[in-house]
């Protein structure tokens, strides 16, 4: 005869499996990883400048998108729980990864909390053999991470087509919105 401990263990396994199924369904519903949304359009029917691949639960990603919009970029998003496929597709080295990936017109990648002014600087004169810029991690004071309090200087890196990266610019003050 089963004991109460057996029933509790069985119930816990059922709840765990149901939770896994729920998360898998949520990931499928929130993800468009079958394509790369380079053809998304804004509300006026124009192609969006930057598609941000991010988790649907990330608040700092939304704040970075607001920073870009305030700097006259048209921005869309592709929400998914697994952004690794996008990072892999673009060849972003593990040490250069941030919490989200912005793709400009399916030509260049902006990984993490890259300031809009540096995106514009890069796009005005893209360095040879570069695929984009990166702010690895989530530095305090970067766009989307700055709340008007403490600021820590951080480095923006240029990502090369061969997977290497190099210094691009050091940010020493908070960016204007």
UniProtKB/TrEMBL annotation:
Protein name: DUF411 domain-containing protein
Organism: Microbulbifer harenosus
Phylogenetic classification of the source organism: Bacteria, Pseudomonadati, Pseudomonadota, Gammaproteobacteria, Cellvibrionales
InterPro entries from the UniProt entry: DUF411
Domain of life: Bacteria
């Amino acid at each position: 005869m089963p004991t109460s401990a057996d029933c509790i263990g069985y119930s816990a396994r059922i709840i765990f499996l149901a939770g896994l199924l729920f998360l898998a369904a949520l990931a499928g519903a929130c993800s468009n990883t079958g394509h790369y949304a380079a053809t998304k359009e804004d509300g006026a029917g124009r192609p969006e400048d930057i598609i941000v691949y991010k988790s649907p639960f990330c608040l700092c990603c939304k704040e970075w998108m607001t920073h870009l919009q305030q700097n006259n970029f048209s921005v869309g998003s592709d929400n998914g729980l697994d952004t690794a496929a996008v990072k892999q597709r673009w060849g972003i080295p593990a040490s250069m990864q941030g919490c989200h990936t912005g793709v400009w017109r399916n030509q260049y990648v902006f990984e993490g909390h890259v300031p809009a002014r540096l995106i514009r600087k890069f796009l005005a004169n893209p360095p040879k053999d570069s695929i984009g810029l990166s702010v690895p991690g989530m530095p305090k004071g970067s766009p989307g991470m700055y709340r008007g309090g403490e600021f820590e200087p951080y480095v923006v890196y240029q990502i090369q087509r061969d997977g290497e990266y190099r210094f691009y610019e050091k940010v020493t003050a908070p960016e204007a919105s």
